[in-house]
Amino acid sequence: MKFSEVVGTENRFLLGCWSAAVFLVLILGFILGSDPVSILGVAESREFQVNFDSPVEIKHIYVLPSQIVRKGDLLAELGQSEWESQLRVLKSRYDKLNAEMHLRQQLAGVVKDLGHLAPQADPLLVDLEDARKEMALIEGRMKNLFVFAEVDGAVGAVNFKNGEKAPAFAPLITLVPLNPTYVNGYINENLSSTLKVGQVVEVNSAGGKVTRGSVVSIGSRIVQIPERLLRIQTLAAWGREVVIKIPRNNEFLLGEKVFVQKKWSLSLLSRAYADEALSNSDLNQQDPREMDIPLNIVETFKPEMSGIVFIPELKQFALISDDYPEDHPVLFLMNEQGQLQPHQIQLPGMPTMADIESVSTEGDNLYLLSSLSKTKKGKLKDERHIFAQIKRHGLSYKIEHHVDLRTPLLQVLRDSQDPVLKSIYEADLQAGKEGFEIEGHTIDKNVLYLALKGPVLQRNEGMILKVTDFASVFSGTLKPAQVTLAARFQMKLPHQDVESVLTDLIKQGDSFYVASSCRKSSCSAIWKLNARTTQTELLHEFQVPHLEGLAIHPETHQIFAVFDSKGSSPYAVVSMGAEKGTP
User: Fold this and answer.
1) Which residues, 6 or more positions from 341, have their beta carbon under 8 angstroms from its beta carbon?
2) Tens-place pLDDT, residues 75-104
């Protein structure tokens, strides 16, 4: 039976009208039946307090009340004489136990089976391991005696002065964020609401400022609503408390009264808006921005930033310069916003060192490497050939070893069985002034990787040298078998006929991230290189020259890159994702 026979030709129009009316009624009922929540609240932020669970000594306070600070800025340096005393006692005990262990090992050759006890059954080994763990625990706590700003904000109160002692749990410094980060509102008990945790709401102020937020908690009890948030302030009201998270980069004032409303929307769109509200404020900069350098640094000399590395215990980046006054290097500290700290880390016992091109960390050690190159006039200078190992402990750095790396490395290339490595040595002999030069290095356990800038065997080609058991160079030993070619790859920029040279590298898992800079052209690039296949991928291209250093933030996995200042160009820094297309 056909549809027209059932309905009838004359009733088609009437059926269409009725169908449309029913559909509109359902949609209208769905919209009107949705939950139009209206909440009054206050835009607030939580105050951060710095305190410790044991008494501390105030060595130095670096900030003043009401001073604006950025996340990662150094606020104070503290001391703990009790921990230092405990550490000295533990080290003395550990040394004595270690000496006993060496004596036992020597006697093991005389008395049979003396040295074959299981580690868990040997009291001496157990005592040694316990002492080592206690030392590591105290050393870890002592690294936390440097106080850094957890958020961008203003210093609220500084409760102690330099040289004073603070009792346990006493607030040393308070920090107030510059912008509110949440809204504290109330749902009147007389209003029904289906508001849920994770739901998206719109936050408005009387001044017309608008942002989107996400509900993070809803109270489970009825409390009195503050008088300021009452529509009729003489009439008391009660309701449930609601906390709403808002993006950090909002325009609200701290303590500003806001109006929160949940408008009807499809859940798919609501989730999309939620993602936008919570992530837009955290997008990372992908274009170079000018670096903020304090006057006390630029008034002393003009640094030529050439390397960057993240220091976990300081939660900041350490930067180095090509050259320093009288060739005495220091480390500059930089936060994630590209702001350098006025405080510089001194390197006592460091020899004169020039043309420093790269910096890296491995464990508690920091490594500096000069370019290993000749001067512009083609002369060899010892201070340009240094590879240095420095012991880190908080803000205290001490030189452990330093060695001339150029001479043994070139000798190994000369004696190598690899024709490519031999070609590098021979090309250096023919190059004259622009010969052998290392622009970057990274360390992975006991392996040292070197980014070779020159000599270039082919145009737009990058080469990475691999040195195994690299610590042997500090004892004067480097054998040809230790040095191999880790990677050889192309760095040709698309749509540009320019020459690119390798300027730095870092290693993350099975991947290298390498920096290149263009000769005689304003461009730079970051590449990703598979360590096994040597296949390269162009991650990002910049229309800015002199990309000098790369580092990866271990928590956010963002790549930070620094650009040198040449001529009138400003110092610059950029952060971006470690994958192509990742912000």
Assistant:
1) 73, 74, 294, 316, 332, 333, 334, 335
2) 888 877 676 677 777 777 777 777 777 777
